[in-house]
Batch of 3 targets.
Target 1
Amino acid sequence: MPSESPSLSLAIARLNPPEANHFATWVVDSPLPSGYVHHDCILPESLSQLWQAWLEMFSPESASPSLSDAAAQLTLPPASPDLDPKPSYSSRLMQHLGIHLWQWLFQGPIQNSFHRSQGIALGQESPLRVRLDVRDADLIPLPWEIMQPQPGQPAISLNQRLLFSRTTCDVNPLSARQVAESLNILLVLGHNEVPPSQPTGTAIEFLPDHFPLLELEGEAAELTRVLAGTPPSSDTGRDDRVPCFVNTLIRPSVAELIAELESRRESGQTPYNVLFYGGHGIPAPDGGQLFLQADTAINGTELAQVLVRCGITLAVFNACWSAQPAREQTSEVPYQAVPGSSLAKVLIHHGVPAVLGMRDSITDEEALSFIQVFARALSARMPIDRAVALARQHLLALFKFNQPAWTLPVLYMHPEFDGQLIEPADEIRTELPANSPTGLGYAVPRARLRLHAPDLPPQMWPVEGGMVRVGRGEENDIVLQERWVSSRHAEIFCRNGDPETREEPTYFLRDFSRYGTLVFDRQDWQRVHHQEVALRSGTRLKFGSSQGQVLEFVIETPPPAP
């Protein structure tokens, strides 16, 4: 699956005054320039009632007593008399909550932008990435993953043509990282019981009194077996799996965890790129608490520093409430959600590319079933968001639609990350030599980018084979370390001409970045964002910011024929 799938990013925020149910929704990123739209709306009472009914059925310890009366007044539409057997109350509740969430989010101009983005994705024969930035902490616990446009259509996180994840725009830039050639997994097994003493200053009454003992050693052995025994991923029998290496830490101290993560880089070994954590955790204001030992916990803020420093691309947490914000009890509002406090969101904020956590409590059987399919998909080179969708479908089939298991995994992805942990096999390009005649009878014109700065030493990059990739990531042909340059920023490529009209080959710039590319041609700088633009010899470029260094695109003039 191509990593350059078009992306539509949405955001939700509460308007002032904060106690009012007035919200703004808008498009943060769109595959088309006119798709950046805004819409103000009110959270309807019917949606609040459905949400409370959901909590009382599937997570009663999280339900708010003050809203129980409203949930009790809820009346679901009757099931169709033609259906045999008739759907249960839980099935109808899940479906109606999903439909109400969809209708509330995709209203007016937001819906139009979504449909137009879908059209672009269909035209490119690619799925549309949909990313949701929920900026109001009270809305984060909602199961946005179950949104569906109408009965009979799949939920957004199960749709084959959509790749759904959550995100946050309040992030540190991604650090440069090389394309991984293998899955190097550190599996951390934490303590299997939460100590009776809990952090003070937070409301923890919604947590259950008993935490089940986790079969952590069995989980480690099973995960290792799954990774080592995945069958070939293609019908031809060719094994396209990447090599997978799993190392396990059982109930480590914080120092032992950090030392293991850092040891790979210091010793020159291939560093870990995936962290799996299995154990208990609870929400807390500083990114939750993960219990490594009976008397030892690490919070999300502390963990984020070492994960970013050691180059972890994906962090997976088989821990209850790892995607939930903490809740504080105040004199005005009981159990008020703390903004930016969930483990998943804290890690993304600090620059971890992808984090998978749990929205609510999850059983060991459910989590292990999910992880098995997820791990197989990763080893078959699937993008992370597609692998999550596949594993979620497995949970639905195993534990049924009317049970919450398939709704529990929550994927967060950094806005600069394309979801590709390992480069897919079908993206390995075979390129022509730089001056080889093409099948159309043309030679690819030689071109280069050069640093346009008279006060600096000359620097030049050839456009090999009619293609060059520019970005901050080490996998690019031209690596620019400026902080406003995206990991995969843009590419310059040569498109063949038409032999019938004698049209010559032409070079183009295609932008994939977060902030765009500035192009100076003749009179003024123009911003190109997620677009294609033709390049003439002498065109100057700035990647990401007007403060960036200037590069000049030059097409070499071939020597005259003898």
Target 2
Amino acid sequence: MKHFLHTLLLAGLAALAAGCDDEAPAKGSDGDAVPVADAGPLPDAAPLPDSGLPPPRMDADVPPPTPAAEVAWVEVSLDPRLPLYTLEDHPAVTATAFDRFGRPTSAELVFMGAPPGQAEVAEGRVTFLAEGQGVVVACAGETCGQAAFFVDDGPPELVVDSPAQGAILTGFGGRTIAVRGRATDGRGAVTVRVNGARADVADDGSFSLDLPADFGLNRIEIEADDGVRSPAVKAVREVLWAPRFLEGTAEGATVPAALALRLDQSLLDRDAVVDVPAGAGDLALDEVAAFIGVVVGLVDGDRLLGDPQIANSPTFSLRVDSVRLGQPQIDAGFTEAGIELFISLPDLALTTAGSLRFEGQQISLDGTLTASLATFARMVIALEDGALRVEVEEVGVAVESIGGRFADATAEALVSVLGNQFGAVARDLVTDLVGDVIRDTLPRVIETALGGILSGLRRVPLNIDPRIEGVPPVRLVLSMQAAALELARHVGLRLSLDATIAHVDPPAPPHDDPGIPTLSPDQEVLVEGAGMGVAVRLALINALLHEVWRGGTLRLQVPVPAQFSALAGETFADALLPPVVVPAPPGSGEVLVAQIGAMRLTMQPAGFSEPHEFQVSLSAGLRVALVDGRVDLGIAEEPEVHAVLVHKGDGREPTLGADSLALILRTVLWPEIRGALNGGLDFGLQAVSVDVGDFAGVAPRIQGLTITPTFQEIPSIRGGRLRLEGGLEVGLQLGE
């Protein structure tokens, strides 16, 4: 019984070893054993198959081989022991048979490979016949041991037919990118993933997948996995996608509707109540109606009078000693052609002196004549040769009511009788007011304000000098000119400006020019807002980057730090595609992202006949700051960098791999690129000072007038445009 239990124990250990990874067998070797239980007399051993090995020596000094029936288990080993073999490998195979007491025996062993066709054993070595998993088996009679192996003759072969590296793709084919290629392996089964999504793979290894396209740089990672080797074989393609591209010229680029200025109905009239200081001080207004109301309220009515003696005859004499216009009421609104103004003067008061002979009585006209008048003005806003023209097309003045407060009660009664004469006096005064303020001064103020706000954009020199040896400076001129005007009744006005970016010294492009990627349409629908809006097309920013790239700024020798120079050797970077600015992903905390993709970087250390070649891309958030009315676009200090080795110089692994290269790019090259691009990414809408000489004759308290665009701090991206919302602040400097 004790002998029988020992045999069962050995059988259990052998079965446990068979279920373990042969990297860590139960008995301290890499073989598995299949013991035969000792259950009574053993049958005669079956004849062994021919192993192909020479027969054992039968010298007198050599003990006879142990009978197979006495073998309890067999251990099999491969040398070298590798997790993966190739078809060219021929590991040595050895095996040892043990009796039930764990003692090595001299039993004859027969070797074979399984499954059939996977491997064969001859003269103590294994020859692999096919890729895949198998075992080498050694048997002493019916007791066998095995050593597992896995043969993989190399990673899958991956060929990407489309898209090509650095391809320019447009929206004409839909908003997708067709990824096509072939992935084959000797084992047959290959899994292909494109940016993590599994692609359909046909029996011949061809695969396809349509990826959604994003505006700007699209990084596509294709992985072919045979299920054996790690990491999987990977290919990277970086392509530029946009709905369309604007073509440039040898001198530069033109971007239609690059900037749109929107003035909303609320900017004209939002019923603001304004308190005008009695003494000297500053007054800030945020709507046109309030501005007109303050100006009219500040008009010195006495200055509107010509000869204060209105009438002088024996029967009727009237002199106006003073004029008070009172608090005006203003209504203003946009029309399809310009602006309509309604000005009501409900409290016009004239201090009078004089007399009237009526039915033999001399009646005193000393007192106050009151009147309510309304005036209407229609202004036309037109665009002529890139400049705005504002003029009054129609003006009307109507007397709504006449009254009076006189010492002589009879005079008050006669006001209605003399209404036409008194009304003519009041109407003449208001007509002079309209002529001086509405017909002449206000159009000039509007023209000056709009023209002055845009004047800073008419010609902006951009001198970009990266200060890198061998990289020439780029000198550009940005010019914007009003090109289209749109008005909608009670909605607003939109002024669209075209932009031209020209080189002072036109360069030769470093590569085939893809044009300027464009996300937004040329025009946008005018909608009502809450003040003033500025919309800058991303195409304008991308045109600036495009021209910087075309000037050769991103084709340079990388200044490698001294500690890496021996390992990297001469290092050159060359952006095959121009940089592009795209909307930031939702939730990223950024507004825009600047991308530089498909950059070829070569390193040629000393002793190499050909360089290592890497494929590199960089991206970084774009900071948008509003400073003193200027929109400043600055690139973030820390970029995201991807680097992939695409060619080994002389077939040898580079000492500085992709990760080390990415570190150098972040710390050394990026500050140079950032410094070069930061120089030309700002524009501004400036404050405008208006000459107050036009007001001197009628409103001498107005001593200064400025009109300043104001913006909210955080811009937004919508419809391919960088949008800034705000308003206009009209500043009046008032004297005593």
Target 3
Amino acid sequence: MLTIDRGTVARYARLIRANDSECNSAGSIQTQPNPPTGSDVQNQPNPPAGWEVQNRPNPPTGYELGDPGNSGPANQCEPYREIIIKSLDQGLSRQRIWQDLRYEHEADVSYDSVKRFVRSLGKSRPLPFRRMECAPGEEAQVDFGTGAWVVTPKDQPLPIGVKTGRRKTYVFRIVLSHSRKAYSEAVYHQTTENFIRCLENAFIHFGGAPKTLVIDNLKAAVTKADWYDPELNPKIQSFATHYGTVILPTKPRTPRHKGKVERGIDYVQNNALKGKKFASLAEQNLYLLRWEKGVADTRIHGTTRRQVKKCFEENEREALNPLPVGRFPSFRESKRKVGRDGYVEVDKAYYSVPPEYVGRSVWARWDSHTVRIFNHRLEQLEYHVKHEPGQFSEKPRNILEEKRSGVEQGAVKLLIKARTIGPHAGSWAESMIEQRGVEGVRVLLGLLSLSKKHSGDSIEQACETALSHGAYRLRTIRQLIKRKGDQQEKFEFIDEHPIIRPVSDYSQLVHTAFTQEQYT
């Protein structure tokens, strides 16, 4: 067995194919009259082309490479390449192409050969990407990259909570898709607050906001990545509404959807920040701002072939959406679950929400003065003034009537209800409140509860009697009602009634009966 490398055989096979004089019409390899032995060929400086293939134990017949990088035999469909490519352009299936080759061209090829050949064509002919260019002011692309290190000098104290003097940073970058005008800013963390602040600073730097923002699926902005219906952080949605823009996350793991900013991140990392370090984050941001104005804005862009600054000022600045009067309100936000008591906790204080949201999740937004509660559709449910830790903020409309006690209604409303029983009951209730004060509110509730078991007249008579004696205990009213109920009711007999015969009729009837008995 010859110790010949497979790559060597492939290399000489390519030479054989390139040399038409050494190949016959069928593509088989022509042999030399007296081929040298293996040892002689190895010692020659330039061994004859095709020798190693000829001296294999079983040299392949018709050995031909359809692909320079492929060391195997040529596919049976190679002679019909043009026919197959034309059929694929017409949208024919592999089964149909195989049938046409067999019956129309009398090709002795198998269906598996057609499938392999079509697959090889697909690998060698990938579909090109489509370039997307935007009108002025239509789109901006946003992404984060790795920034330069911030190294605190040894003679300066470290910030509170920082354990090391060498801190990693992230560089935020936004690129306007039409002019390639950009803005960069370094941050320590990719939080929602930092993301919003960087976007807002970029809009002010541009003098306007683009109509759409293409962002990556970073956790600071996207709570659930989905190409068809992504879920954005509610605070990010409010920010976009404030500036009149729309945020469109890219397809997960598809960086080419924001290729302009991908190249922009590489540009700022390799051109501006590579090999640099700064003493503070503010120093790095000041350097980035100067670099954007002095280097990035003055360059001739490789794709547009125009100066970035000139293209922005002439075409895109006026096309941006105008900025609102004020900045986006600064507030904190978090999801909260409503407890069984109907409250949510914010900064260790408690705020009531509508009772139908008990056990459900809501969004709380707060600043140093106010607390606002929203549902999942960002509809405001409640508004509170911010309280100190440990305090409760309750809105009366958030209390169900079933859970509202009579005491909470106050003495005024209870006295109004007592007057509906009768004038004596109302007078007794007013005098009782004057005599007993706050504790009389619960007595009023007891007086009103008597109307569920007794008639208004019995309560009215008991109140009249108790008022005449100056008795202002509920027990006295109950006893008077009970005594009146124990007395037997007396009925007065009446002499005449339309349906009752008079007594004279009965005496005449008796007299007539006795007279008839005497004569019989």
